[in-house]
Amino acid sequence: VELEHIFWRWDVSAMVFWKGYIREYGGQEYLRVILVDEQGTKMEAVACGDHHMMFNNVFIEGETYDFLGVYFTPTYTPQRPIWISECPRAFREFEDVYRQPVDTFADVIGMVVYASEIQDRGDFWRRPNRHVLIMNQRKNFIIIHVNDPHLQHHMWEWRRAAYQFKTLAALHVKISTMRGGVTTTDYSQIIFSPICSDVYDLKDLCKRIRAERKQITKTASVLTLAIINK
């Protein structure tokens, strides 16, 4: 969309990357979402007036929708510094992630308790991957199937993170067909020891379970093998 065309009406297809909460400004309620097109380009969309409630009930993060007859508005860059949070303010509970439809996206955070050796998927291309198990405060687990480019970007971090029970945030990971698992994509982001409130709660858990390191690691390894071999 060129600048001179922004006020035209457009039909576009895009995936809902992130959906906010309904908020009010100047006496009018609105809904903000972040959309991603096929090339991975992100754009903010705002629904207001009579449409915000409908979109709030319909939109699901990770799903793709067709938007008919929409307008684009230029964004003016402010002169003041902009601070963007590295992590979301809140993460979904693992139980909620389990219930999401396959191929939708979620953000998860937890303590790394197990990282497998690098292995291939056993398919025609023999693509390498690694299984990483993270645990939340309720001692529930979720498996992250780590693929490239994240496998190479954090080559030396995975095993050390598991040994030290480091906190890991996995952003925009895809719900896998395998129960209790998510998969990284090219658009995912892996953050070790992120700066957010969940990290402090997980640090307390880490201190309490260090004495159980051997048993937790063994349980995590067995659980990972049981899930991936189903």
UniProtKB/TrEMBL annotation:
Organism name: Setaria italica
Protein's name according to its UniProt entry: DUF223 domain-containing protein
InterPro entries in alphabetical order: NA-bd_OB-fold (IPR012340)
